[in-house]
């Protein structure tokens, strides 16, 4: 049988193309490729070469539209026994190809070609084409007149033109030879025989029968030459005559041959145009051809030769002619019949050709699985031959079936799309792609195909193909392979690798399975933040770069789960976690595995790993980015079983998803005991230029700082630049919970160290103050029966975070300038900055426990002599002496007799020590300066503390806090209520200035004043802090807030008046005041009463002054009066301006030494709403009295 046969094959002239002399295969193929292009030569182009010696037998030769067709047989072919039956099987021309530089003796070349041509006895024309002759060969006269044609060196276009001319000459020569042969055949007695004809001596009857058949066979042969000469009309006429003669002589075999020729002539006459009528005619005639081939079967020749091959060939020709999707059913029927008949073929080569043609036609129809089945039949026939070339052919044929069986090599698929894999669709793996890759119902057949490929590759001596087949078989079908079979494949991999050179790469991966596990989270010291050059706070609103689903710094921005981005920095190591699985029963030794980087901007570091049988392992692969841009990491490069392969993450993800959907045999990771599959998206990875890198270290260790409640401690944080570029911008901020626990941060220290060059280090101080434990934590300690033990805070994430945003200032051109100094529109995409997150891990232990607070009252009398002494010395500038002479009680209470501190109130705090250490507490009051220079207590701003109080373990102590110094300097209506209306009714005023409203309005003022009270403690040498008692003080003051905080409308004071007799008297009076015996009996003592208005409106009053003795009796009235006076002491009407004081002078004459008390009182006229609210008076006509505190007077008898 003829391969690649078609109906038009009968019109093709066979030309043997053979190499002459030493022509390399590469050059031979190159020259032959130029020749094959001229497989069709039009009759019009050969007219110049054609010479008509006598009248041509081709009367209807189509010189204008006809052509000669050539079928070049490279290397030639042996003669066919069926050449008489089908003339197109003859080798009618021989073309030799010679490369002159490798054959210097052209005469020898001509002789070799002549000898080679003699083997083709049927050839009519012989030519030898000698390419690239040298000058000496061109001048060689010995080869002239031979069939040797020289092609001088020239460009390819010129050579092709020369070659075309020579082919046209050959075509003309063949046409003239065909004419000679036809003329001889018509007149001569040529005998035409086939292998079907009996070889025995013929009887007389058979001789007569053979003579009759000769005429029909001759007409059929002449028709064949008419087809070869390109004259279909002449051929059809001869075929028609042959059909009549062969039908009459019952020569069914030649009848079928003539019918085939008539169909070819019909198609040639139609010039390739097809229509339904023509197709029906072709089908009808070829069905007759097939039928008559079948009739020609002779039982006697069945064991020697059979026309079955011609019957099947005719069936294949018809199937090829009808081969298109519209006629698929007819074609399939023909091919099925051909396949059934092929089983009866005797010659294995004929059976091979039949299966090859069936496979091709099924492939052209799109029936790839049927084509693959018959391709496997071809491979089986090749494998039955025990030679290397047959094994190579079998391997090549089987390789063509792998696509249909879904076991093709990755190299045959072409460039993988995994290299450019993106996750714009959120990492979805489509169902149809899984089905196309894995079809478990084909498992057995797929395994058989791969075994056949493996066997053919081993026989063919192709270790790489054998390794690839074993790898695909083991990787895809390990669950169906027994342990012994797995070990056998392992041996095949090892043996194939031993025959391969080192570093051989294969596109098909074997074991292990590799999947992406995760990307390690960025260290808090390596967060990358995008910069906004238009803002000074370029980090505002930016979340850190990395594979975070949520971060506490995102400030509530919506999170786009489909947008996965990761930023790496040039020169900084990066890590990727991958998981390996070995589901087979032998150990897998991975010599090296590293990240596959198609973008070329990352240096990956290889690692080796050993996987025991049926095990999985998560490993870390690392690398260093080298250049800016996007990074593409589709998988890993694995060196295992002696071959380097690339494993794509996407393939394994599809495999695992297919296993979950029942489309794949098994999940290799679950079978090894790995965790449940979690689809990990491959993020978009961007590499940015080198950035600074701050590394923090807390002095004393990076563990938790153990602090008692309220403890204040300094923490020293060391910052070092571990990057390759300097830090030129830095900003410190706080985040997280309990930010108030960070008292101060030495930001200026860091700013002063900028720019911080690579390798430089700076240390900053952070002052921390422990917060109060919640009631839940305290109750937890009590429930555990540990009343005296410290309670460790149980909540996580309660410590504050210190955030340092820093960056290098570089413009687009790389100049180191301040980024913020440039205009925003001139800055384009600056490199990102970084954020250093330093957790201030504070472990708060329970410290002093507050038990209760209560408000106490006490009175401390003031003496006029002391006031005189203080006032006099202040007026003379002797401030140091005053401060030095203050007693301890004065420092604690700070009595001001001019304002009257007699209603002194103290806050008592009861503290309990449940810890194992000893605490010492002290109370301090921080006062502020005011603008009133006349008031003693407002002019002096200092801190006054009491002695330390020791509180031992499990003991309770009390501390006192004076509250008198916290009175407001001015009694203002705005303080009492914002709803105050001057023209309101009595009812509205009463409602506005109720005590409930007053407490609400004064809340802010109370907090401000309470913040000045500090209760500090110390434990040991290094532990100190403050108690948070604000809530306790505020709760204790709520009941008496007006009495404590608000001043009286009027304050009264007494002092000795200055003498008017000169400096001597002043000195005497001052000395008298200082000496302690301030006032002497039997002397007229000049005094002044000071009335101060603490409101912002003038007040009209009626003032009265009284003096009482130790018994409380009035000593200036009655018969027993002991004090005489000069001036007015009662019914004194005066108006006191706002925020000022008024003096009223008088003199007293004490008759008896002793202790006296001076009192001042006033009745206020036309009291306004502020005064009535302060006095808690509801009636408008009710008088308001204001009484001052008593002042003690000590009267001495002698000087």
From TrEMBL:
Keywords: Golgi apparatus
Matches recorded under Pfam families: Ig_TRAPPC9-Trs120_1st, Ig_TRAPPC9-Trs120_2nd, Ig_TRAPPC9-Trs120_3rd, Ig_TRAPPC9-Trs120_4th, TPR_TRAPPC9-Trs120, TRAPPC9-Trs120
Keyword check for Ligase: no
Top-level lineage group: Eukaryota
Occurrences of domain Trs120/TRAPPC9 TPR region (ranges): 330-492
Domain Trs120/TRAPPC9 N-terminal: 9-181, 203-268
GO cellular component, one term: trans-Golgi network
Domain Trs120/TRAPPC9 third Ig-like span(s) in chain numbering: 880-1045
Places the protein is found: Golgi apparatus
Domain Trs120/TRAPPC9 fourth Ig-like: 1075-1195
Residue ranges constituting the Trs120/TRAPPC9 first Ig-like domain according to the UniProt record: 544-648
PANTHER family assigned: TRAFFICKING PROTEIN PARTICLE COMPLEX SUBUNIT 9
Protein name per UniProt: Trafficking protein particle complex subunit 9
The organism of origin for this protein: Salvia splendens
């Amino acid at each position: 049988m003829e391969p690649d046969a078609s109906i038009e094959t009968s019109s093709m002239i066979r030309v043997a193309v053979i190499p002459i002399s030493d022509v390399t295969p590469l050059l031979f193929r190159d020259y032959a490729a130029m020749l094959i292009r001229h497989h069709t030569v039009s009759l019009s182009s050969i007219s110049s070469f054609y010479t008509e010696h006598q009248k041509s037998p081709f009367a209807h030769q189509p010189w204008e539209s006809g052509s000669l067709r050539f079928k070049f047989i490279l290397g030639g072919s042996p003669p066919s026994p069926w050449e008489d039956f089908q003339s197109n099987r003859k080798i009618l021309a021989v073309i030799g190809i010679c490369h002159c530089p490798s054959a210097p003796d052209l005469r020898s070349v001509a002789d070799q070609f002549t000898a080679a041509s003699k083997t083709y006895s049927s050839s009519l024309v012989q030519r030898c084409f000698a390419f690239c002759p040298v000058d000496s060969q061109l001048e060689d006269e010995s080869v002239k007149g031979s069939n040797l044609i020289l092609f001088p060196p020239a460009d390819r276009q010129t050579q092709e033109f020369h070659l075309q001319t020579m082919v046209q000459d050959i075509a003309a020569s063949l046409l003239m030879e065909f004419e000679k042969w036809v003329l001889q055949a018509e007149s001569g007695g040529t005998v035409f025989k086939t292998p079907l004809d009996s070889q025995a001596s013929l009887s007389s009857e058979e001789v007569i029968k053979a003579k009759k058949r000769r005429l029909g066979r001759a007409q059929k042969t002449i028709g064949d030459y008419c087809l070869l000469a390109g004259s279909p009309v002449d051929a059809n006429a001869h075929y028609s005559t042959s059909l009549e003669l062969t039908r009459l002589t019952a020569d069914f075999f030649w009848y079928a041959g003539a019918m085939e020729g008539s169909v070819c002539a019909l198609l040639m006459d139609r010039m390739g145009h097809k229509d339904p009528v023509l197709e029906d005619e072709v089908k009808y005639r070829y069905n007759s051809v097939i039928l008559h081939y079948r009739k020609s079967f002779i039982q006697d020749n069945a064991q020697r030769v059979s026309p079955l091959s011609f019957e099947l060939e005719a069936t294949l020709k018809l199937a090829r002619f009808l081969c298109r999707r519209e006629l698929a059913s007819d074609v399939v029927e023909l091919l099925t019949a051909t396949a059934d008949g092929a089983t009866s073929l005797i010659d294995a080569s004929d059976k091979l050709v039949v299966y090859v043609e069936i496979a091709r036609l099924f492939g052209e129809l799109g029936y790839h699985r049927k084509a693959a089945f018959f391709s496997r039949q071809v491979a089986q026939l090749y494998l039955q031959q025990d030679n290397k070339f047959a094994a190579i052919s079998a391997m090549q044929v089987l390789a063509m079936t792998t696509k249909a069986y879904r076991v093709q090599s990755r190299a045959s698929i072409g460039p993988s799309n995994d290299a450019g894999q993106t996750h714009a669709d959120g990492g979805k793996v489509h169902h149809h792609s899984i089905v196309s890759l894995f079809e478990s119902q084909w498992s057995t057949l797929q395994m058989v195909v791969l075994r056949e490929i493996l066997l053919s590759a081993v026989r063919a001596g192709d270790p790489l193909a054998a390794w690839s087949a074993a790898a695909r078989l083991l990787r895809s079908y390990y669950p169906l392979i027994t342990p012994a079979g797995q070990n056998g494949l392992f041996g095949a991999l090892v043996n194939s690798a031993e025959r391969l050179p080192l570093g051989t790469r294969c596109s098909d991966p074997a074991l292990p399975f590799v999947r992406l596990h995760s990307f390690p989270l960025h260290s808090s010291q390596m967060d990358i933040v995008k910069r906004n050059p238009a803002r000074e706070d370029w980090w505002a609103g930016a979340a850190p770069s990395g594979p975070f689903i949520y971060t506490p710094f995102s400030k509530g921005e919506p999170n786009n789960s489909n947008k996965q981005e990761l930023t790496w920095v040039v020169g900084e190591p990066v890590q990727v976690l991958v998981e390996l699985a070995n589901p087979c029963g032998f150990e897998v030794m991975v010599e090296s595995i590293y990240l596959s980087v198609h973008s070329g901007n990352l240096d990956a570091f290889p690692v080796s790993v050993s996987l025991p049988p049926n095990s999985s392992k998560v490993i870390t692969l690392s690398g260093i980015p080298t250049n800016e841009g996007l990074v593409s990491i589709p998988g890993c490069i694995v060196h295992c079983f002696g071959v380097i392969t690339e494993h794509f993450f996407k393939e394994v993800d599809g495999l695992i998803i297919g296993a979950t959907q029942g489309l794949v045999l098994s999940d290799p990771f679950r079978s090894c005991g790995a965790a449940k599959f979690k689809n990990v998206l491959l993020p978009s990875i961007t590499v940015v230029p080198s950035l600074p890198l701050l590394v923090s270290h807390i002095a004393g260790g990076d563990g938790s700082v153990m602090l008692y409640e309220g403890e204040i401690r300094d923490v020293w944080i060391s910052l070092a630049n571990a990057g390759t570029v300097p830090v030129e911008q830095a900003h410190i901020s706080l985040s997280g919970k309990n930010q108030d626990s960070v008292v101060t941060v030495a930001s200026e220290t860091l700013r002063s160290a900028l720019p911080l060059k690579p390798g430089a280090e700076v240390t900053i101080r952070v002052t921390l103050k422990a917060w109060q434990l919640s009631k839940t934590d305290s109750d937890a300690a009590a429930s555990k029966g540990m009343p005296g033990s410290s309670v460790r805070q149980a909540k996580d994430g309660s410590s504050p975070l210190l955030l340092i945003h820093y960056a290098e200032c570089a413009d687009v051109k790389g100049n180191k300038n301040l980024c913020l100094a440039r205009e925003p529109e001139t800055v384009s995409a600056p490199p990102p900055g970084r954020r250093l997150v330093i957790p201030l891990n504070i472990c708060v232990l329970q410290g002093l426990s507050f038990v209760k607070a209560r408000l106490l009252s006490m009175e401390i009398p003031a003496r006029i002599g002391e006031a005189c002494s203080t006032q006099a010395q202040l007026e003379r500038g002797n401030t140091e002496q005053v401060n030095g002479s203050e007693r301890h009680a004065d420092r604690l209470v700070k009595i001001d007799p001019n304002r009257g501190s007699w209603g002194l109130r103290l806050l008592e705090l009861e503290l309990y020590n449940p810890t194992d250490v000893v605490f010492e507490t002290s109370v301090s009051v921080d006062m502020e300066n005011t603008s009133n220079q006349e008031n003693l207590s407002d002019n002096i701003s200092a801190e006054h503390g009491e002695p330390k109080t020791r509180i031992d373990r499990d003991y309770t102590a009390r501390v006192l806090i004076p509250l008198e110094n916290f009175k407001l300097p001015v009694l203002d209506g705005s303080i009492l209520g914002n709803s105050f209306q001057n023209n309101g009714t009595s009812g509205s005023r009463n409602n506005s200035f109720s005590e409930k409203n007053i407490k609400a309005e004064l809340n802010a003022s109370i907090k401000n004043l309470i913040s000045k009270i500090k209760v500090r403690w110390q434990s040991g040498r290094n532990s100190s802090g403050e108690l948070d008692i604000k809530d306790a003080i505020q709760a204790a003051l709520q009941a008496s807030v007006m009495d404590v905080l608000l001043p009286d409308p009027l304050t009264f004071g007494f002092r000795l008046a200055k003498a008017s007799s000169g400096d001597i008297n002043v000195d005497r009076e001052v000395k008298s005041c200082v000496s302690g015996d301030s006032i002497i009996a039997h002397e007229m003592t000049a005094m002044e009463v000071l009335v101060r208005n603490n409101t912002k409106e003038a007040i009209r009053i009626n003032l009265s002054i009284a003096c009482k003795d130790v018994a409380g009796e009035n000593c200036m009235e009655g018969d027993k009066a002991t004090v005489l006076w000069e001036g007015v002491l009662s019914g004194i009407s005066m108006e006191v301006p706002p925020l000022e004081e008024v003096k009223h002078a008088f003199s007293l004459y004490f008759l008896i030494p002793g202790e006296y008390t001076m009192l001042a009182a006033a009745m206020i006229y036309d009291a306004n709403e502020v005064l009535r609210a302060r006095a808690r008076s509801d009636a408008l006509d009710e008088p308001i009295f204001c009484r001052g505190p008593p002042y003690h007077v000590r009267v001495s008898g002698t000087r």
